[in-house]
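Table S2 (text version). Query chain:
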Amino acid sequence: MMILQRYDAAVGHRTDFRIDYRWVNWVEIADYLPLAIIAAEDQKFATHHGFDFDSIADAVKTRMRGGRLRGASTISQQVAKNLFLWPGKSLLRKGIEAYFTALIEMLWSKQRILEVYMNIAEFGDGIFGVEAASRRFFKKPARRIRLGEAARLAAVLPNPRAMRPDHPSPHVARRARWIRRQMGRMGGRHVIDNIQIHHAR
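Corresponding structure-token output:
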């Protein structure tokens, strides 16, 4: 859904816009990539049931104090939004997003949710999924991505149309270093091992 929406929105203003999208299965993605994405986007992904209520509460408190509104969406919520919903911030849309989030958490394993996310997330202007991004930015398939490259790919997710993982700005470089530290603090490879174990069951 999101890929089609991006295409429709872009072609009305640009004649040179192209979608670069390639699906790859979990086994074709280097372990560094899902770990970097969890570290960057949703560190409680393996343990929550679709919603990070602590982050939601913190975001609300920050907003009420006059701070900048920041996102508190989990990876599961982003998958629900990008697969099924239209752009916007209405209460109706949020309610439908919550419904689909709960549904995919019930029907899909954590590995499947993360696999879908890695294949539909935008990593550059019209570049969707880790395979297209890996080939475009690092001239290699996703299965060969290394630690630093994975951290830089994850670092651009908040604003992929303005940030580049192959020529990182100081901000992207700092964020990538932070992501690498978080990957270690979370337990490294053990996080991915646990997700795969639960998938096998």
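Notes on Table S2: The domain at 2-6+28-200 is CATH 1.10.3810.10 (Penicillin binding protein transpeptidase fold). The beta strands are 20-21, 122-124, 127-128.
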